[in-house]
Amino acid sequence: MLAGCDFPLVRDRFWSTGEDTAPGTSCSSAPSSPLKSTAIGRPGLRVLDLGTLPRVESPPTELRARKDKLAYFERQCSPVGHGLFVGAECVARNRESLREAGITHVINCVGFLYPAYFSPELEYRTLYLQDTPAEDITCILYDVFDFIQAAVGHGADPAGRVLLHCSQGVSRSVSLTIAYLMWREGRPYEEVFASVKAARGIANPNIGFVCQLLQWQKRRTTGPGAERLYRLAPQSPAAPQYLVPRSAKILGSAGLDPRGSFVLHTSTALFLWLGKACPEGFAAAATTFAAQLERYEAAPAPALLQRDGKESEEFWTALKAMLSSSTGEDGPEASGSWRAAAVCEIPAYDKDYELFARSQTARSSTADDSDASPRSARKTPRDERSEEDPSPNERQRKHARGTPPTVPRDAASADGGAQSSANGAVAAAASPRRHASRLPPVPPLDMTRRGGPSVNSRSRVPRINLSPVATVVSDD
């Protein structure tokens, strides 16, 4: 028997006195503890028997639980109320899932990653949103509302069903869904978010979207309060033709750019201002946005049209009040000099206007290409070549026959130096000696022999003599 262990903790847990199981003996009864002795080399040591330990299922970690929840909702088309469904991209490209849910319209929040999979079978609205706190979602809210209203109708029972999807159905699509339900049901953000969260457990808008929705809710419930100026600009470089309203500020004394359109919203009036160089697309987008302000924010109607150089006194007074509220100082007098300085090209807006102009140019060039004649009616390079300018193959054949090539009409009408060079080239090509030295004629093949062609007795195939005949080129 080995000496006892001097360490009490090790002795109590891992050291055996030999009474449990002696070396060389066997024990048929089950061990009383997960530690049992071993007879291999060290009889006094005991090893841990994992088979005797109770199996206790520990709760999953937070990261594991989140992954499992994402994997579950990734394939779920979650109904959130009044004909609205929220899903991930894998649901948007699964036609069976869409058919089971009765989806008729789709809002794609990630147009630069995912296409309209089932267009024109389903009606699509494509947006280009980044899932970042700095992304502005309030500029496209009313377009989303118009699309959903046209799909579900104005009645209690929805006429159609709309799927809002992004990559995972967590932030972008959920934010737009919450905004629509806030407007339609008149409930605050906290209540709507709780109901959407109960239907889709992974709903979690980013902090930037939450702040924007809270500010939008305050603006709708308390009224404009102060003058707000909007300018129309492309929503994304991926869609330069899609113009949305963005907040505009008075930079110094300048606030209006003659290249675009602006909407001024006050508590008493709604102004629609068009610059002298404003394209038709900007004017149409501003008119649509003014109508949306009347519909969703109860703006004063109708919108008062203001053209560059023909503004009313009421408009200048409202713009001066906005300048005073933004700077905290008394605004300038509404004189002619200040009015002229308020309208100028603002460098901060150059990028947006250049982006729209380039897209217009590309669009017009594409339209011109589509309006061109069909492929069969177009002339090929061979058809467009004149008879006086033969093809390269034709010139080579004329060289081989010893015939001087035809001089093109343009070369014949050239000046004296070019004419002499062309004549020299033609004369050189017409000379038999020079022609023979540059490009010797192909010798003819002797296809016959004296006495007729020889025939192989086995194959009965005539043998042809391919030996060339000597060709002599004379200087005469």
From TrEMBL:
Domain of life assignment: Eukaryota
CDD domains, per database record: DSP
Q: Which PROSITE patterns match?
A: TYR_PHOSPHATASE_2, TYR_PHOSPHATASE_DUAL
Q: Name one GO molecular function term.
A: phosphatase activity
| Coiled coil segments of this chain | none
Q: Where is this region: Disordered?
A: 360-476
Q: Where is the composition biased (Low complexity)?
A: 411-431
**Where in the numbering of this chain does the Tyrosine-protein phosphatase domain appear?**
76-222
Checking InterPro entries in the record gives: ADF-H/Gelsolin-like_dom_sf, Dual-sp_phosphatase_cat-dom, Gelsolin-like_dom, Prot-tyrosine_phosphatase-like, Tyr_Pase_dom, TYR_PHOSPHATASE_DUAL_dom
Q: Where is the Tyrosine specific protein phosphatases domain?
A: 142-200
Annotated protein name in UniProt? Protein-tyrosine-phosphatase MKP1
Give the species this sequence originates from. Answer: Auxenochlorella protothecoides
